[in-house]
Amino acid sequence: MNSPNSEDSWIPLSDIPDSFNELIDKFHHRHPRSPRPPQFILDFARRAPLDSTSHNSDSTSPSVLSHRPAIPPAIRRPRSPSAVHHDPRTNYVPPAQTTTRSGCISKPPQRLDPIS
Question: Compositional bias of type Low complexity: which residue ranges (predicted)?
Fold first, then answer.
């Protein structure tokens, strides 16, 4: 069932003729959620035929380019800044008086431990 020619398999962009570029662009504009290769690979695939014809004398450059991975390695995310934790109790000042549910006015007792 996992044959290399299944509809879910990927083929190299270099195997797709340039005449299909417009068709592929239309498909991805109509189906933005479908998987697509990164933009730099698409640009590289468009430049690759020009580069390979201009460097026919250098036999090592096409082989080096063909060994590049299709998807670049993941780049580590920068570390998030460490969170600064503040104790909210250090800056709390109780109100001078509060009203209870029954409507009585309550005055909180004086704090014995002063906040410094």
Answer: 51-63
- pTM beyond 0.70, yes or no: no
Do 71 and 39 form a contact (C-beta atoms < 8 A)? Answer: no
Cβ atoms of 87 and 115 within 8 Å: the answer is no
Distances (CA, A) of 43 to 17, 47, 56: 14, 6, 21
CB 105 within 8 A of CB 99: yes
Question: Cβ–Cβ contacts within 10 Å for residue 65, how many?
Answer: 14
Helices marked H in 55-86 — which ranges?
A: 60-66
pLDDT in tens, 66-83: 556 666 677 788 888 888
Phi, psi dihedrals of residue 45, rounded to the nearest 5°: -65, -35
Non-local CB neighbours of 96 within 8 Å, separated by 6+ positions: 107
